[in-house]
Design goal:
This protein is elongated. Strands 2-1-3-4-5 form a five-stranded parallel β-sheet, sandwiched between helices. Strand 1, helix 3 and strand 2 form a beta-alpha-beta unit. The chain has seven helices and five strands; from the N terminus they run H-H-E-H-E-H-E-H-E-H-E-H. The protein has one domain: 3-Layer(aba) Sandwich (Rossmann fold), CATH 3.40.50. Helix content is about 60%, strand content about 15%. By secondary structure, it is an alpha/beta fold.
């Protein structure tokens, strides 16, 4: 694991230099949805050692959407093959709910068939990783997608602020126009 962290360190330092806060990714929330407790423990260990502090895991896929709603993750690691509700159904539900600026979902599966990849990506998966997982690749992809999420949130916040400023300025202009019109009368 130490070699994974050493290998990822330059990438994380570069990304942290882009946005100035070395703790940004550690503050972001990651939800793990996988029915295999050993997979969950492994992912939690890898992520914790890499500095991610806000992790939540679900092993019962029937609870996944409720946990997602209450936890409000910044990224989801989603197994595809689970009993009760499979990962594709969860992915369809997440994407049909909408409302989220950009919620990256990395699908994790041992099924390497083109059909499965296409189904996951077609359902809205942001990325696709094959099991057994390469820890360094997982960390790099997570860091990249969290940076994308951070940027999407930043853009959405700026857009909302600009819309508010535009609305306020429009009201001021209307008021000024009405004032001018009433002064002419």
């Amino acid at each position: 694991m130490e070699s994974c962290l050493q290998a990822i360190a330059p990438n994380l330092q570069r990304q942290n230099a882009w946005h100035g806060d070395t703790r940004t990714f550690g503050k972001m929330k990651i939800l793990i949805i996988d029915d295999e407790p050993l997979n969950v423990v492994l992912l939690e260990d890898v992520l914790s050692e890499a500095g991610y502090k806000h992790l939540k895991s679900v092993t019962d896929s029937r609870l996944a959407l409720d946990v997602c709603d209450t936890f409000a993750p910044d990224l989801i690691l989603l197994d595809l093959m689970m009993p009760h509700v499979d990962g594709l159904a969860i992915l369809h539900s997440l994407r049909s709910a909408g409302g989220e600026v950009f919620l990256p979902v990395i699908v994790l599966t041992a099924d390497a068939t083109d059909e499965t990849k296409r189904a996951a990506l077609g359902a809205g998966a942001t990325d696709f990783l094959l099991k057994p997982l390469d820890h360094l690749e997982v960390l790099l992809r997570i860091a990249n997608l969290l940076e994308m999420r951070r940027l999407h949130i930043q853009l959405d916040t700026q857009r909302a602020a600009m819309e508010d400023a535009l609305r306020e300025r429009s009201l001021e202009l209307r008021a000024a126009h009405l004032h001018l019109e009433s002064a002419r009368l």
